[in-house]
DNA sequence: TATGCCGGGTC
DNA sequence: GACCCGGCATA
């Protein structure tokens, strides 16, 4: 694959399908002499760009990249995702042009080809600053694979420069991930400066790319045995690992950092994670993006350090590596907090009302409503644009259901947790149509019944 | 077909 | 935000 040429890109077959690669290739009409270098470049571009472009589905790409195995990611999920069309755009970004930049080196004598390669690698590395690139390290478990071996330099060398990229621009991220804010504030400090470097190097184009990335949120989690620190900046994380765990030192350690932290990302709404995790609905989150996932997902995270939950579930990566999983971020506690709140809320609601439906009165509801509403916003993330009232209503019913449902597909279905009829006593059923005035407001409005939340007997 | 409730509209 | 309802999914 290394030898792949511009024209060679096969549409469907993944390996080479890296759009970025294609783009980069276009520009190449260089002398044969520089072939080696070019090859290198192509690979690089492929690895780097692809992920960038696919921020949303990045997890997969990243993972793959890690092993340097070009993988074709089915574009099934397009949430925030990219579609072919987008690919072209990317190509236009300065990033690609950068490839050619390395060209000059290629003119060197054959004898210095190696040098060229290295330089090219470095250049690429610097260009690859995108956080996504970092991801590769996710497979900390098997560091051996591609990265270090093939062009070890690239991987790490860029480390310092590159990763920071993400750091500086996360503000919005935090916004989405409510729990995170405090997360890496400290770390953030360090990253920004480096982020600047990146910018300079990458140029506006990348900038744009980043923007597009905006849909991607992630964080870096220290995998060191008892650490588990989470930072939004890879640079910060590296530093953290290097200083606290590896002991600031040789280059060796410099490289190893990568293996001691993993990137955890919370997909924004799209929260794909089609692969391994059923959460990210929201992702998101999303998200909290972790939102959707609420209960189910959070459990693992809530215990934070106990990787058991997410970690175990994760295929290759380390504990909590779960890409796109909100939990990591939420580790800080919020997640659990939500969980509790939600449950609590639910319980309260139930306990207060179910006992005497007849006595129940709307007013109380309103009170709890507000609370629940609050929760709902946080937990559920954004499934759809919902009126406040709806949100909490959904929350009430949804939360309970969520526990069993465990967040399904991020797709639309994710938002609609309909429980089968008869799972709960709905006002209509209890009071009958004739006594509609006894119905809870939600029922009257044809909303999810709040008085008899679906307790899914199952 | 009845029911539950989502999604969206109106006030 | 409260209220209402069309329309879909499900039993």
From TrEMBL:
InterPro entries: CR1/CR2-DNA-binding_regulator (IPR052253), Znf_C2H2_type (IPR013087). Residues 161-173, 296-330 have a biased composition (Low complexity). Residues 10-24, 86-96, 132-142 have a biased composition (Polar residues). Residues 220-250 form the C2H2-type domain. Residues 1-24, 77-100, 132-173, 270-335 are annotated as: Disordered. It is found in: Nucleus. PROSITE patterns: ZINC_FINGER_C2H2_1, ZINC_FINGER_C2H2_2. Its main location: nucleus. One of its GO terms (molecular function) is RNA polymerase II cis-regulatory region sequence-specific DNA binding. Residues 148-160 have a biased composition (Gly residues). GO terms for cellular component: nucleus. Keywords: DNA-binding, Metal-binding, Nucleus, Transcription, Transcription regulation, Zinc, Zinc-finger. Signal peptide: none annotated. It comes from the Eukaryota. The keyword DNA-binding applies. This is C2H2-type domain-containing protein.
């Amino acid at each position: 694959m290394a030898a792949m040429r511009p024209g060679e890109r096969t549409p469907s077959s993944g390996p080479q399908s890296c759009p970025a690669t294609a783009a980069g290739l276009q520009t190449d009409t260089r002398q044969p002499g520089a072939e080696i270098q070019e090859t290198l470049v192509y690979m690089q571009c492929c690895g780097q760009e692809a992920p960038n472009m696919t921020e949303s589905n990045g997890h997969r790409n990243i993972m793959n990249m890690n092993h340097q195995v070009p993988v074709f990611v089915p574009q099934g999920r397009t949430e925030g995702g990219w579609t072919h069309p987008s690919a072209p755009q990317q190509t236009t970004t300065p990033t690609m042009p950068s490839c050619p930049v390395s060209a000059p080196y290629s003119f060197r004598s054959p004898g210095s080809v190696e040098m060229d390669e290295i330089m090219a690698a470095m250049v690429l590395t610097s260009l690859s600053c995108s956080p996504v690139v970092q991801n590769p390290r996710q497979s900390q478990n098997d560091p051996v694979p591609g990265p270090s071996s093939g062009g070890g330099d690239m991987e790490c060398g860029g480390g310092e420069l590159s990763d920071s990229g993400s750091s500086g621009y996360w503000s919005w991220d935090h916004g989405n991930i409510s729990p995170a804010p405090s997360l890496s504030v400290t770390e953030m400090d360090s990253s920004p400066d480096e982020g600047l470097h990146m910018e300079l190097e990458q140029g506006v184009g990348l900038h744009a790319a980043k923007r597009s990335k905006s849909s991607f949120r992630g964080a870096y989690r220290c995998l060191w045995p008892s650490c588990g620190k989470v930072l939004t900046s890879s640079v910060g994380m590296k530093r953290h690992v290097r200083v606290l765990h590896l002991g600031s030192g040789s280059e060796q350690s410099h490289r190893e950092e990568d293996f001691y932290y993993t990137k955890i990302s919370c997909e924004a709404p799209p929260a794909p994670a089609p692969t391994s995790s059923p959460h990210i609905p929201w992702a998101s989150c999303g998200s909290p993006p972790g939102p959707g996932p609420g209960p189910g997902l959070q459990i693992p995270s809530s215990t934070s350090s106990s990787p058991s939950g997410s970690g175990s579930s994760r295929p290759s990566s380390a504990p909590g590596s779960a890409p796109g999983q909100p939990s990591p971020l939420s580790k800080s506690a919020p997640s659990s907090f939500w969980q509790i709140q939600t449950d609590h809320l639910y319980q309260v609601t139930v306990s207060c009302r179910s006992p005497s439906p007849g006595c129940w009165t709307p007013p109380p509801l309103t009170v709890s409503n507000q609370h629940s509403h609050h929760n709902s916003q946080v937990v559920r993330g954004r499934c759809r644009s919902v009126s406040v009232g709806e949100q909490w209503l959904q929350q009430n019913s949804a939360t309970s259901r969520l526990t069993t449902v465990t967040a399904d597909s991020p797709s639309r279905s994710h938002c609609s947790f309909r429980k089968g009829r008869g799972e709960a006593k709905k006002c209509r059923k209890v009071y009958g149509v004739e006594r509609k005035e006894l119905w809870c407001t939600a029922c009257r409005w044809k909303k999810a019944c709040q008085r008899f939340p679906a307790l899914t007997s199952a």
